[in-house]
Amino acid sequence: MAISSGWWDQAREILGDRLLSDAALLEPYSHDESAVEEHRLLPPAVARPKDEQEVARLLRLCRKERVPVTVRGAGTGLAGGCVPEPGGIVLSTELMNRVVDTDLGNHTITVQAGLPLSRLYEEVERMSLYFPPHPGDEGATVGGAVAANAGGARAVKYGTVRRFVLALQAVLASGEILELGGKYIKSSTGYHLLDLLVGSEGTLAVITRITLSLLPRVGSVQTLLAPFSTTSAAIGSVGRLLAAGVVPCAVEYIERPVVALAEKLLGKTWPSHEGEADLMLILDGRDSADTLAQAEAAGAVLEAGGARDVLVSDNRERQAEMLALRSIFYDAIHPGVAEGFDICVPRSQIVPHLEAVRRLEREHGVSLPTYGHAADGNLHSHALRRALRDGAFGEELPGWRETCRAIRRQLYEDVIQRGGVISGEHGIGLARKDFLARNVSPGLVAVMRSIKDALDPDGILNPGKIFQR
Q1: Cβ-count burial of 150 within 10 angstroms (0-12 exposed, 13-18 middle, 19+ buried)?
Q2: pTM for the full model?
């Protein structure tokens, strides 16, 4: 349905030249970073408000005119969550990017939703404090990370973004501005609606401002890399580490083909090329003595578990190089990907699930290179549409679309049978909504829908995401 001329007139009155309608300017807002080519749609308009008052006015107008609204941060998502609805606009938070308040006494920072994570980390560093969650792409916005309940490598020790959200300002579809939470730690005062909005993917309200709790800055960091002959030996060592009382900041599982692609893209060399897979551990602590003790304990466990070597680095430059390689894994693999997956299973089920992934490779003749966060069970396998040989992509595979659909169904069925979930940190969005009802009970989906209907009765906020119509 076409947007009325009355909507255009009133939206321009609210936003002025911050209402975009030129096709060349709209194209970047038509997609996210997902590899699924169907997740792309040019919106008729992009609204770029500068504060919550403009958001409220715009939502009141869109509700009145029944114009769908899809909120967008930086578009770094991997689930199609910010792809606009047909006939609907994009509400971009990119201009809502201020640091509102820094509070050393309460160890908090309050920012607008469009602040990039890179700027958040810089500001927190200036405060001599620490914000542990690191979803991977520092170009992502704080609001986007909250809307997806982003996780990342450090979740095993520090948890996901949800753990650090103390307060939210959010605007309902009606235009009402809600203030949820505050700079306090405990509350048993009514329903905890703040937690409801974290991870809601823009379907319940537009998050405009966030207050985050911060931690004291760590004094020392060490990185360990352990190559293993087999996947099962690598993953088996993770449980032994935790049982021994070693809780790393991050435990990354990395398969050899992914490393080769990243090396070629960045022009740098990974420290190890032995065996089937590596574990990369990041240890943080009060001081160098603390992290050294952790490294010694971890090294003993890894060697007992079959590590072919344990490489220890406390050199900042070498650590930064390894992290740079790890951070571009998705960029390196993206040119050959049909679809990327974001499953999470209990730790005890990681090895059986990876065995199922290998069976799918043999059955379909398609590579499914995998990496992920081994200590929290969150793995990222990628169904390829191109051949992969010796660290380089080759020709496109015949029938890759149909093959990918079959792999997707079988992979998700395996995850569900193992008591896992189809998304650990990227969200449901468009990419996984057809499997949500298979992953959770019909009763739970009905409750979710009733919450959506209560907060957004006209269904204008990010419609078509999370639920099947």
Answers
A1: buried
A2: 0.95
Q: What's the confidence (pLDDT) of residue 315?
A: 74
CATH number belonging to domain 99-216: 3.30.465.10
pLDDT digits (tens, 9 = 90+) for 355-404: 999 999 999 999 999 999 999 999 999 999 999 988 889 999 999 999 99
Cα 56 vs. chain centroid, distance in angstroms?
Answer: 27
Task: Map residue 256 onto helix, strand or coil.
Answer: helix
Write down how long the chain is.
469
Tell me the C-alpha distance between 35 and 425, whole Å: 16
* pLDDT tops 90 at residue 468: no
CA distance 294 to 299: 8
344-369 b/e with 16+ CB inside 10 Å = b? bbeeebbbebbebbeebbeebebbbb
Phi, psi torsion values for 296, nearest 5 degrees = -65, -45
Residue 147 CA to residue 469 CA, distance in Å, equals 21
Rounded distance, CA 21 to CA 34, Å?
24
Are β-strands 250-255 and 215-216 bridged in parallel, bridged antiparallel, or unpaired? unpaired
pLDDT single digits (tens) 245-299: 999 999 999 999 999 999 998 888 899 899 999 999 999 999 999 999 999 999 9
The top-level CATH class assigned to 5-92 is alpha beta
Is the distance from CB of 272 to CB of 309 less than 8 angstroms?
yes
Q: Does domain 332-432 have CATH number 3.30.70.2740?
A: yes
Segments in 162-250 forming alpha helices (H): 193-197, 231-243
The second-level CATH assignment, the architecture, of 220-327 is 2-Layer Sandwich (3.30)
DSSP 85: P
